[in-house]
Fold these 2 entries.
Entry 1:
Amino acid sequence: MIKSLQDFLYSHIPLTKEMRLELVSFNESTLTAKAPLLPNINDKGSAFGGSSSALMIISAWSLIKLCCDTHQINADIVIHENHTQWQKPLYDDLFLEANFTEKYNFKAVKHRIEKNKHFRVQCEIKLVDVDANIYSTMTAYYVIIPKKEESL
Amino acid sequence: MIKSLQDFLYSHIPLTKEMRLELVSFNESTLTAKAPLLPNINDKGSAFGGSSSALMIISAWSLIKLCCDTHQINADIVIHENHTQWQKPLYDDLFLEANFTEKYNFKAVKHRIEKNKHFRVQCEIKLVDVDANIYSTMTAYYVIIPKKEESL
């Protein structure tokens, strides 16, 4: 399931491939992912803030997408708002951990989407190193929207 | 000056090259930049939120960097915090406009950096289309930090 989403990301969101994002694990409350430093490095030899931001954004998006897929929810997921703090520079590979800030009932979400209504979810994403030390934290809001039509 | 910074970005922050970021104009209060949709596209055919976030982050960073260069300020610039709102999807090339939220006196900044103190600046960045319609807005805080040592 993770592998198939990663293939989808690589073919539909080319930047995820350039960043060498790798989805690692998923359960209904958490998704973890990682990316090597080199394609995401900055002029100071640490992780580029733009890369870490993009990786955090797509990690939470992937968490929501896999929850929707699990419950056969046919919806688009779009980011609406986020807030990020960078505590210190990360001079090593990037690890991401995306969580929901509360437990969402995806059966209820499915019901709502089938009634052509959207649903807003809140996630918290951490940028950590291999030892789980925290370098950056993001709070992000996404909207799950009924698909208007199938893509061609 | 812009061309030389763009070369610097391409060689030191590889993601800027993958996103095909192009710095367009600079004066001491505003920097504009652009990037084509294709390398920054998402699964819905619109601009990937991670790309737009990264492009907004590097646009304001470039504004500050060029102001520092203009005033011979030898400093690192790091992002500390940001807040972004995405109003609507952009199905076309991305244009960025980065501004300071107030007028900073970079002569005073230089004095401060030379005394080995850091300086925090606030920027507002807009993601717009070719006709200047707004799709996303970011408020971001950066810290200008005295360089500890020259890079090798």
Entry 2:
Amino acid sequence: MEKIQKMLEELSNLKTDMHNKDFLLTWQKTDAEILATLKTAETLKALYESNVSTKVFETGLAVSQFRDNSTRTRFSFTSACNMLGLAVQDLDEGKSQIAHGETVRETSNMISFLTEVVGIRDDMYLGAGHTYMKEVAASLDDGHKEGVLHQRPTVVNLQCDVDHPTQSMADLAHLKNVFGSIENLRGKKIAMTWAYSPSYGKPLSVPQGIIGLMTRFGMDVTLAYPEGYSLINDVVDTAQTNANKSGGKFQVVNSMEDAFRGADIVYPKSWAPFHVMQRRTELLRSRDNDGLKTLEKECLANNAKYKNWECTEEKMKLTKNGKALYMHCLPADISGVSCKEGEVAASVFDRYRIQTYHEAGYKPFAIAAMILLGRFKEPAQVLERLLASNRKRVGA
Amino acid sequence: MEKIQKMLEELSNLKTDMHNKDFLLTWQKTDAEILATLKTAETLKALYESNVSTKVFETGLAVSQFRDNSTRTRFSFTSACNMLGLAVQDLDEGKSQIAHGETVRETSNMISFLTEVVGIRDDMYLGAGHTYMKEVAASLDDGHKEGVLHQRPTVVNLQCDVDHPTQSMADLAHLKNVFGSIENLRGKKIAMTWAYSPSYGKPLSVPQGIIGLMTRFGMDVTLAYPEGYSLINDVVDTAQTNANKSGGKFQVVNSMEDAFRGADIVYPKSWAPFHVMQRRTELLRSRDNDGLKTLEKECLANNAKYKNWECTEEKMKLTKNGKALYMHCLPADISGVSCKEGEVAASVFDRYRIQTYHEAGYKPFAIAAMILLGRFKEPAQVLERLLASNRKRVGA
Amino acid sequence: MEKIQKMLEELSNLKTDMHNKDFLLTWQKTDAEILATLKTAETLKALYESNVSTKVFETGLAVSQFRDNSTRTRFSFTSACNMLGLAVQDLDEGKSQIAHGETVRETSNMISFLTEVVGIRDDMYLGAGHTYMKEVAASLDDGHKEGVLHQRPTVVNLQCDVDHPTQSMADLAHLKNVFGSIENLRGKKIAMTWAYSPSYGKPLSVPQGIIGLMTRFGMDVTLAYPEGYSLINDVVDTAQTNANKSGGKFQVVNSMEDAFRGADIVYPKSWAPFHVMQRRTELLRSRDNDGLKTLEKECLANNAKYKNWECTEEKMKLTKNGKALYMHCLPADISGVSCKEGEVAASVFDRYRIQTYHEAGYKPFAIAAMILLGRFKEPAQVLERLLASNRKRVGA
């Protein structure tokens, strides 16, 4: 309990302006806000593990909108909402129907009369997901200003075309835990690298989220991919700017080995090239199924040139003392297990399997933190009241 | 808080007999019961906005059964249930399968062992929706009488072929708020008129709900539609009887202009003609897809003759001081926005957009009121206890 | 309240070891554990009916995974979880996709960070359902041991290929209530018999569950089926062993009349022969649709030879004083009502209809008991605290 008390003191010392705001991209948040989110997540986790109820809402709705299949993120979001006392109601428009304009404005209000948070996953179309979330946010602003909505629900990005902040914040929490502190991450080398996968069309949001966030704390971030597998330019620029500001490093290389050499952390994960995602977006929009098949074929053939981009035992030996921390957002394409040839050798994955589970385990708490900070002006006080009331989570 | 205290006094002065009853059609309820529902909805809204918890159930289930797609009503129902402490569980039979007899009796009991409310939307088939709800209600009566069900769940009509009471009650709450009181509605002219839409098969329940409810408070209700677009006869008769009793007026005209002239309120909304809905019901039942296509074609062609039934700026000028209140259950077919030509001109809709959102905002509270009155013998006392306990809804 | 106090004393006298364990097969539980489950279910029912809140979790998730359609079991599970304070989140993999190995291990952990119970229904494939549940359980053990999961969720079998413990425990609760005590069941004859149905592919888990559980309390259990409709051998052996141990009887006959003769209880219900389910499992796995059609045709033709296996008034006259208790897990195939010729004559069913509803009404409480015993080391103390706090379930 003293540990939690200390966390709360640290939290209340951070100057943040997150109340009635959304959590869409980590680089729209100040360092203090990122640290406050992390601290809040850790506090909620500590309260949970101490069997203290974290229910700050007696009643209230959480809206989830998944424009792509999801199991892990769905459960993380539901867990986060439940932990705070909110009930989740799915908004299911059907995957193919992408609403715009008047409909978004109206629907956003209609689902929000008693709603505290709207969680959205929309990562299929380049240029669409983040735009859609901003449209929802503007509609909620409008409804709140006009008195239609008594409260302003917080929009939480559960993965868009640009960023995946609930993943990257969970990753940061994991790194902090493994290395002992945010300060200890300074100078540590993280290799965010493309890896081979026998599938295509994987979003760019994870690597973009990682380079956009990890460059802020003085880390040495290396992004590696085969020629042609570049990310959104703006995000790469953001990563560079962040690194300059934080005293870290950011570089792009075209060799997995170069990235791994001396790395403290490796994050090998497949994604589709930016230009492929652009073509795919157009083909999806024009419902050109033949075009999509041709693109998939081309893309898989291109991927196949880079089967050697696998996180093998040999490559792991290149890392710092051969013992870099392996990270993945899961599920990984494990060679010989979930596919013939994939992102990671089975023996490497197996050694770090439990660690990747721990990594994922931060996500519900990271999401809950985003909600809490978006909905409460004085989050540290709210958490202190929880601690003081000491109401049991389990056990009547 | 004094305001709420006053509301509760007014509520406890109304003599009602709603405990263990359902809310299926507004005209099955006495005036006092309608006013009690309205007062309870307003009280719940006031408590909500004062951050007082309205959780009257520690645990308990709410069953939702949507036999037609729905986003708005689904969220309103979920919000209402959540606000009272109930968890929603969907009963999803598949849209095509319409259960009867033994199956309804059995299923109604099987889903209700710990259930407090069953919300049903069934508006696709003329002659079916209301009948089905009565069948469910009778099954629950039976199960309760036989001791199978410890409590008698309340059935709430979330839209049937005959009435849409959660909509009309929200509309009444909105009117009361705009005009200051129920008494002030006396003599006010409301034009419930058909309007052109490029779609077909819209249910009759909204116009029927409006003429069935608004005739009870001395309003001057004009129903307008092109020849052939009549409603269910019984409901029209009910409206006339209500008007006679309440000292109001009820008339049917075949001109949108006539209806708009001097109106204080206009409610322009498309629906399918009664006889089309009857044919459609038969075709749906016999799964005659060709017949359905032919009917749709015929019906759209017929609609197209009445494209001038649009709520334009010009027609709005005919209303009282050119400033009638525009109402709609949403979503509206807005000309040039959601369709080429539709129910309402974009400039008219835009001027009233926020008001229609406020109108919709009463729905969760109207539904919660129906549940509360159905489940508690002394609803005013229950609400008083909520007020007295002053347990915060948000904020630990 | 004194009655409940007495139940709790009896419960605390039963030596059980169910904490952090699963409820997969009744025959994996000791007699004391079966009785404790029954007692806990009865206590929860009594608390519910006394309007005492049974909420032992402030927050927490319940995962439901239905690999087959279900309405009744779904509502029972949701009711059970809700009664204890848990929110249900569905894990929906799609019916065709049966995950194995790495995926099961990973998914089981990913959905369980804040989860207290995982309810699984998987009864389609012989040899698969129970195996899958054990795989999930082992994954949760692993995750808990490794510190990935703060708590060890309890797996509850909501019907597998081998057993249907939530059904058989509800049946036992019903029998205890009808006959006054478990002791009174000693020597009573129960006829678990096959009955004709115009459908095919019904699981074996209900008859297996009944013979596996009812043989434990000294009952005279007769299993009857036409030649060729045998059950899984291991379960039949278990029933025989149970009967020997408990001083009861177990016999298999091939005549419905023989089974009914002198029976105190009859449970006539259709199922598919074991060897048909095996062939069906193979055909489903190889997605051999033609083979499945052929099998269905063969199987229905074979069923049709045994249309006289119907629970008629005439057969009921063979039972003890012609008044045996009729039981069914519902829905029954009622001749002339839900099908032309079926498991039971309409007049017989109708006489026992309300009793079958009561039978089903125990299921939510039986499931809640399994959860409570799986999650709490001292369940009697938890229930005592609920009783002492006397927090109202309904009524603010």
